[in-house]
Amino acid sequence: MVHNNVGVIITLLVIAGGLVWLLVRSFRGKEIDRRVIFLFIMVSVAAPLLATITFKFTATPIVEALYDKIEALPEGSTVLLSFDFDPAMAPEVQPMANVVTRHCLEKNIKIVFMCLWATGQGQLEITLDQVLRRDFAHKIDGVDYVNMGYKAGNEGVLNVIVTDFEKMFPTDVNTTPYGDIEILQGVNSCKDMDLIVSFGGGRPGIKEWILFVGDPTGVPSAGGVAAVVAPQLYPYYPRQLMGLLGGIKGAAEYESHFRERHPNHADMDTPAIIMMGPQTIAHIVIIAFIIIGNVLFFMNRRRGARS
Amino acid sequence: MRYVLRCVLVAALLICGTAYAQTEDMVEDTVMTAMAPAPATNVNAFDTDNDHGHSVTVTWDLSVDDGGGTGAVTGYEIHRWSPAEMVTLDSLRGLLSAVEAELPNVADSSAEANLRRDSLRLRYAALIATSVAVGDDLDTEMKARRAAVKEAFLAALDGLPAAHARYPENGNWQLLGKVAAGVSTYSDAGGKEPTASSFIPDYCGFHYKVHALTADETVYGETAPFGPVECYGQWFNTGRVPVLLAVLIFGALTIIFVSIARRGADLYVRPLAGIEAVDDAIGRATEMGRPILYVLGLGTAADVATIASFTILGRVAKRVAEYQTALIVPTYEPIVMTVAQEVVKSSYLDAGRPDDYKDDTVFFVTQSQFAYVAAVNGIMLRELPATCVYMGKFFAESLLLAETGALAGSIQIAGTDEIAQIPFFIVACDYTLIGEELYAASAYLGREPILLGSLKAQDYAKAAVVVFALAGLLASYASWGHVFTDLFKVTN
Amino acid sequence: MKNLKWFVLAAVCILFAVSWFAKASGGDGVDNSVLDAFLVTLAAFLTLAIMSFLYQDNPYYKFAEHLFVGVSAAYWMCLGFWSTVVGNLFPRISEGLSNFFLVPYQPGPLNFFFAIPIILGILLLMRLSPKGGWLSRWPLAFIVGTTAGLNFVRYLRSDFVKQISSTFVPLVVDWQGFGHFFSNISLTAGGPLVMMLTNLVIFIGVFCGIVYFFFSKEHTGVFGKASRVGIWILMITFGASFGYTVMGRISLLVGRLTFLFTDWLGIIG
Fold first, then answer.
1. I want to staple B329 with a disulfide (CB 3.0 to 4.6 A). Which of B44, B362, B477, C17 is the partner?
2. For residue A40, with 0-12 CB atoms within 10 Å meaning exposed, 13-18 middle and 19 or more buried, which class applies?
C-alpha cells in the first residue's frame, strides 16, 4: 500500500521517462556514462524523500519473533540492549535501537544499556534523547533503566560479563556503584537477563554475543544489524538467534508491527518506514537497470553471432 | 392501606434477609480466600552443576492450587536461612568500602568531610573491637582502620560455614526472590568476589523453603525447610564434552595427516579452476607484452589468507620469471612487503633467473586503505596489466579494485576468505576462489605438509558433518532420536 | 582552466559563508547558535565534497577524505588511551593515577597480574624502536595465541557442533496422509508445506555446499552434480548478500540526503 499517491506518480513518471530515454540511447548503441546511473540513483532516492512516499509493511517471522518475545516478557523483566555501532551504520541501525527501546519501555521492562563500541555511547545518547527522555520522561534512571556505558575489550568484555557483570562494570556512566543501582539487584551476570539484543553490524556484534554469551548461557539473543552482515547471521536463526532485524527493512517491519499493535504510539517517529520509500524506488530503478543491461547484453551477443 | 403497609414490611424483611444471606456468603467467601493454599511439595536444593560455585538451584513440585484446585496460587517466594554473621559480613563490607572511599579524601577538612568521618568512626566502633587512635594524621588513622576492618572481614568470612552449621539458631529467613505461578525452579546465584554485595559463600550448609503465594500477601502455603546444601565449583564442565570430543577428533586428524604428508605420501587435492587459470593468464600477459599485477590485500603477514597468498605469489612469480613477463606487487603493509620480496626473489632463483629479479617489483604504497586503492587503481589505468590477481584479505576496497581492473580490460582472478567481499569479486572478476578454496589453492601449489595435512583433516571433518547430518535426519523420525541429538547439546 | 579552479574555490567559500550565516540567523526557521550553524554547514559541505567523487576525483574530495582519515586516526588513538589505559588499567592499579585522571578507583588487593598487560603493552610499543622491534613479537604472539584459544572453543561450539545439530531437521513435517496434506495446503510461514521446503533447502544446501568444498575428490559423476548444486546454492547466497549490501548502501545514501534536506536545508520536517 502506498501513501501520498501524487508524490509517487510524479516520482515514477520522472524515473520511468529517464529509463525509457536510457533504453532508447542504448538501443542506438550509444555508451551511457556511469555518472548518469549515479544521477538516476540520486533522483530515485531524493524524490520519494521529498514527496514523503511511504509503504506499509508486514513483519516477517524473523522480525515478529523478536516482537513477540518482548511482548511476552512479564513486567519487571530485565533486558540487555547493547549499542555496538557507529555513526556510519546509524541510518540503518538507529531506527531499530529506537523502536526496540520504545517497545521495552512501553512494556515496563527494565533495560540495561551498554556498548561494546566506543562510538555506541553517542548513538545510545541519541536513543535516550529521542525515545526515553521525550516520551518516557517518568522512567527513573537506576530503577527502570541503567546506562552502563562503554567498556574496552571487545570479546574480552563478553567473556567476563557472562559470569560476572560487576567485574567489568563496577559503576554505571554516572559512577553510581553497582551495588547501589536498584535495577541491578539480583543481576550478577548475563545469565540473569531475560533477553539480550545487540544493535550493530561489525565486530564485535551480534555474532560475538551469540558465541560468548547466548550459546553458553542459553539466554535468548536477538539482534538488529546493518544489511551487509544480515545474511551471515541467518544460519543462527532460530536456535541460536531468536530474532533478527536485518537492515532498514527489518526496522521498518518492526516499526509498522509495533505501531499497529500499540495505537498510543501512532504518532511516534518512524524513520525506517520513511527511509523505505526511497529504498523501494531505488530498488525498482536498480532492477530496471539490471533488466536493461541483460537485454542489451544478449542482443549484442546475438548481433555479434550474426555478424 | 394496611395491606400495602404489610406488603412493604414483608418486602423490606425479604430484602434485609437476602442482604444478610448475601453478607453471610461474602463472609464465607472471604474465609475461603483467606485459607492458605496447598504448599509446594518435594522441595529440593542442590549445587548448580558445571559452574564456578556460588550458586544453588532450588526445585519443587507445584502446589495443587497452582492452576488446579482453587487456582489461588499467584507465584512462589524462595527464602534462604541466613545466620546473623551474614548481616555482620554485609556491614563490614559496607564499612570497608566506606573507609577505602575516604582514604583519597583525607586532605579534605570541610565540615561535611569531618561529619562523614565521625559517622565512620561510630560505625567502626560498633563493629570492630580493635581501637584506633584518632589523631591529626588522618591518613594513618584511616589506613589503620582499613587494616582492622579487612582483618575482621576475613575473619567473618572464615566463620560463615560454622555459622550456617548452627541452623536454626541465631538467624532468620531471608527472601531471595519471587517466580511466577507455574515455575518450579529458582537459581540462587551470586557473585564469587567476597567484596561484591551479591556474594554467596561456597561450602556453607544453606537451608531453603518455598512459599506458595496468593493475591493476599499475608496468606501463603509454606513448605518445610530443606537443607543443608552446599555450593562449590566444579573442575570439569561436563556440559562441554561434545566440544572436547570435537577438539580431540579434529586435532588427532590434523596430526595424523600432517605426519602422513611429512613422510612424503602423495595426498590428492583436486585442481581448482582459478589456479589453472593463473598459468593461462600469465601466458596471455606474455603474448600481449603487458605486466601482471598481484595484490596481496589489506591483511597482515599473520593472517591465514595473506599467508596462503604468499604461496600463490610464489607460483605466479616463478611462471613470470620463466616467461620473462613484468610483475607489479604493490603492498599495503611493510612486513607483508618484506615477506613478499623474499618470496618473489626465491621464485626467480627457482626459475633459474636470479638476475632478472628487480627490487622494485614489490614495493610499499601506504597504510591508508583508500589511498592504497587510489594508488593501485592509478597503476592499473597507467600500466594496463593483462592480468590482475587479488589474493588475501579484502574489505570495502574489493569492488573498487575489481571494477577498475575490468575497465582496464584485464583478466581478473580473485580469492579471499572475507565472506562479505566474495559477491563483489564474483560479479567483477573472471575467476574467484571462494573462502576455503584460497587455502586449498595454497596447499595445492605449495605442497607444504602442514597445509596439506590441515586441508585433509578439514575434508574428513566435513565428511563427518555430512554423516552426522544424515544420521540426524534419520534420528528426527525415530523415537530414540533425542539420544543422538543430545550428543550435540552443549549446555553451557 | 587555472582561473576556473580559483573561481570554483571562491564560489564554494561564498556558499559556505552564506549557508553559515543563514543557519546562524535562523533563516530556516530554527534558531541555531553560531557554532551549531558552523558545524551543520561544515558537515553538509563535507558530505557534498565526498559525493563529488562520483563526478570525478577532485581536490575537495581529497580534502574531505584526508580530513576523515586524520581525524579518525587521532580519535581512535585518544580513545584507546582513555578507554583501555585510563578506563581499564589505572583504576585497578593506582589510586593516585585514578584521581589524576578523574576515574573512580576500584579498591582491591594489589594484584601483580595487572603488571603483565603493562609489560606486554610496553613491549608492543618497542615496534617503534629500530633495534628493539623484535620484542614486539612477544606480545603479538600472546595476542594471537590467546585469541585463537579463546575463539577456537567458542567457534567449535557455536559454528560447528551447534550448527551440525541445527541441520537435524525432519524433511516431512506434521504428516497425516496425502489427503490431509493437499486439503490443508497453505503458503503460510508456519505451514507444513513451507516448513518442509525450508528444511529441504537447509539439508540440501548444507550437503551440497560441503561437497563443493571437499578437496580430496575430483568433482565428477554424482559427486560433481552435487558439487554443481552446491555452487548454485552458494551463488544464490552471494546474490542475497549482494542484494542486502545494495540495500545497506542505499540506506546510507538516504541517511545522508535526509541530513542534507532536514538539518541543513530544512526543506523536510
1. B362
2. buried
B40-54 pLDDT, tens digit each:
999 999 999 888 888
Query: So what's the architecture of B36-235 in CATH?
Result: Sandwich (2.60)
Is the CA virtual torsion C6, C12, C18, C21 positive or negative?
negative
Q: What residue in A sits closest to C106 (Cα-Cα)? A: A170
Per domain, the residue ranges of chain A are 2-55+271-306, 61-265
Instruction: Indicate where chain B has its CATH 2.60.40.10 domain(s).
Output: 36-235
Residue B20 is inside which H or E element, if any? Answer: helix B2-34
DSSP state of B417: S
> Could you please report the per-residue DSSP string of B61-76?
EPPTTSSSTT----EE
Question: Which of C115, C112, C119, C114 lies closest to C136 in space, CA to CA?
Answer: C119
Please give the torsion angle defined by the CA atoms of residues A114, A115, A116 and A120, in that order, rounded to the nearest 10 degrees.
170
* CB of A163 less than 8 A from some CB of B: yes
C102: cell is 578523574
B212 by Cβ neighbours in 10 Å (0-12 / 13-18 / 19+) ranks as buried
Residue-averaged pLDDT of chain C:
85
Q: Quick check: helix, strand or coil at residue A257?
A: helix
**C253 part of contact set with chain A, CB < 8 Å:** yes
**Beta partners for residue B416, in sequence order:** B434
> What pLDDT does B74 receive?
87
CA distances (Å), A26 to each of A15, A62, A304, B404, C244, in order? 16, 42, 16, 22, 28
> CA-CA distances (angstroms) from residue C216 to B253, B456, B464, C83, C130?
14, 7, 14, 48, 46
State the DSSP code for B234.
Answer: -
Which of A35, A230, A278 is facing C254, going by the closest CB pair? A278
A188 → closest Cβ in B189, B490, B491: B189
Best CA proximity match to A244, nearest among A79, A57, A60, A55: A60
Q: Work out the mean pLDDT of chain A and round it to a whole number.
A: 90
> What is the tens place of the pLDDT at every residue in A70-85?
999 988 899 999 999 9
Which class would CATH give B273-447? alpha beta
* 3-state class (DSSP) for residue B145: helix
A167 to B193: CB separation less than 8 angstroms, yes or no: yes
Q: Kindly report, residue by residue over A14-44, the tens digit of the pLDDT.
A: 888 888 888 888 778 777 888 888 998 999 9
Residues of chain C with Cβ-Cβ distance to A246 below 8 Å are 244
- What residues are paired with B362 via a beta bridge? B329
Q: What angle do CA C232, C237, C239 make, to 5 degrees?
A: 95
d(CA C128, CA C120): 14
Cell 513435517, residue located: C173
Phi, psi of A110 (to 5 degrees): -75, 135
Residue-level pLDDT at B28: 42
**Cβ distance B403 to B376 under 8 Å?**
no
The pLDDT score that the predictor gives to residue B211 is 93
Q: CA A249 to CA A269: how far, in whole Å?
A: 16
- How many CA atoms within 13 Å lie on the side-chain side of C169? 23
Q: Find, among B60, B322, B312, the residue nearest to B183 by Cα.
A: B60
The class of domain A61-265 in CATH terms is alpha beta
Contacts of B473 in chain C (CB under 8 A): 167-171, 203
Give me the interface pTM, i.e. the ipTM.
Answer: 0.89
Give the residue from B204, B172, B212 showing the smallest Cα distance to B78: B212
| From-to residues of CATH 3.40.50.720 in chain B | 273-447
The answer to whether B472 contacts C165, with C-beta atoms less than 8 Å apart, is yes
Q: How far apart are CA B276 and CA B285, in angstroms?
A: 15
CB count, 10 Å around CB of B315? 20
Give the number of C-alpha atoms closer than 13 A to the C-alpha of residue B338, restricted to the C-beta side. 4
- Look at residue A164 and give its three-state secondary structure: coil
- The closest of A125, A180, A187, A185 to A150, measured between CA atoms, is A125
Tell me how far apart the alpha carbons of residues A197 and A97 are, in angstroms, rounded to a whole number.
9
